[in-house]
Amino acid sequence: xxxKRIIIGAFIVLTATYCGVKKNVxxxxxxxxVPHYNIDNNPISKAKTTLGNNLFYDPLLSxxxxxxxxxCHSPHAAFAHTDHDLSHxxxxxxxxxxxxxxxxxxxxxxxxxxxxIDNLDAQALxxxxxxxxxxxxxxxxVGKLKNHPKYPGLFNDIYKDSLITGERILKVLAxxxxxxxxxxxxxxxIQRGTATFTQQEISGYNIFTSNCASCHAEPxxxxxxxxxxxxxxxxxxxxIGRQKITKNPMDSMLFKIPSLRNLAYTFPYMHDGRFNTLxxxxxxYTQGVQKSPSLHTALKNGITLTKKEQTDLITFLGTLNxxxxxxxxxxxxNRDFFIKNEGE
Amino acid sequence: MYPKGLYSFFLxxxxxxxxxxxxxxxxxxxxxxxxxxxLELGQSYPISGRDSLKIDFLKFYVSNITFFxxxxxxxxxxxxxxxxxxxxxxxxxxxxTVKNKKFDxxxxxxxLDTKTQKKGIQGGVLDPTTRMYWTWQNGFINFKIEGxxxxxxxxxxKFQFHVxxxxxxxxxxxxxxxxxxxxxxxTIDVDIASFFNVVSLSKTNxxxxxxxxxxxxxxxxxxxxxxxxx
Lengths: 344, 230
Hints:
Chain A has 344 residues and is an all-alpha fold. Chain A has helices spanning 2-23, 46-56, 69-72, 120-123, 125-129, 138-146, 151-159, 166-178, 186-191, 199-211, 243-246, 278-288, 307-318, 323-327, 335-343, and strands at 226-227, 255-256.
């Protein structure tokens, strides 16, 4: 009986340990919610993240080996495309939307500005296949990787066979992307009790909570839902946003709500990059909101902010910039992998 | 340590099950046809008098094949998904174990169910290299036909039917029940000619996203399936 009890005890301890490990596998702080991304479908490993990193920076993913994911999602821009209102892809073709930053993706249910894709593993298929982004296909990439001097070995290290499939490529890419966690801004340090807000930041935080937080909820600073924030439709792009996907007129001009983290690195702002500065963004919210049936309820009565309040708010938003995240070596290009390649 | 007899017992059970499985195997085939003749890709088929059409690509999913007797489910496929590709052969074969073979209805899904669709990227016949996963939005294409006909006022006279979408109101996944006589092998005919008799290529030739047209086309596609009469 005693042995039986010991076995049961050991089983409980092991299970608890296993669950504990599983829970923290994304290395996220306690004040973050439960991630949406299902790790069970793509168990995390360092080897996968590293391989995903190599693929992310490899222009081999595009039809003429010129464009990598990082071309439009560079680490110093919190994986957005700084200074480009619309991103440009293969053959210098210009896209129709602003490349969104990539961080805290495991907490997001929908991807793309219109939420066309709700599966992170599948997301990469879109830029890979798009004629103005990478102009390639997953089949083409499988072919290139199979004949590559290094990749088959790396897949073999992970999967114990050198088979390269679409599923494996996409899951490895997703694995690198979920590793992009931004949780080291001043705001995060304050959550951990290692820093404090200045008076002006507190004032800005209060303005934020009463005017912005319904869409840009803490601690991710987005609900990652969709909203029409009163932007006039761009006559050259005629982008109706979420309605294109749902075909529902009430989704006209709804776009995915972006996070307010890392704004210092991710300008220009909005789905079409129409605003270059946060001042312009606040001018829109206080003076430029266009009324329409699908306008978000929080904006129906307008937002009023004095110049000083706007300055305080922008100061608070500065506490959401995560310098450690954008400078972290582990998210950057693995130069050795590519340099040695060229010598071969 | 277990007594030796127990191993023998398990071995006996295993063998017994194996024999039974063999005895109750039913082979299901999907036969791709064009006007009752096996379909050939790239072949020119006459349509509406003077015109013709060519099919270059035809792939579709069949999933969740189940067997019924008097309205009660008596068997289910172990292999959940089948990708039928005209490129491989016009005849697709798969085998199932059905208890006593006494079924009177076969039920299957044309396309993939919502749960599978929502799961996103998967391997095997669901791998995105099959060209059956949308690249610009969620989910799988359930049924894909591409080809050309002068009836199509499109670039290079192409027609492209990428029929997919699993979210209401544009759910294109069709579940079909066909009455049949139980036997060791059962052939389901899929006659593509009927599709072009119903869908007029001059009017409908490009369906690439989940919408009303896709739902309409998916309903037409479901009518192409019938039990082969011996």
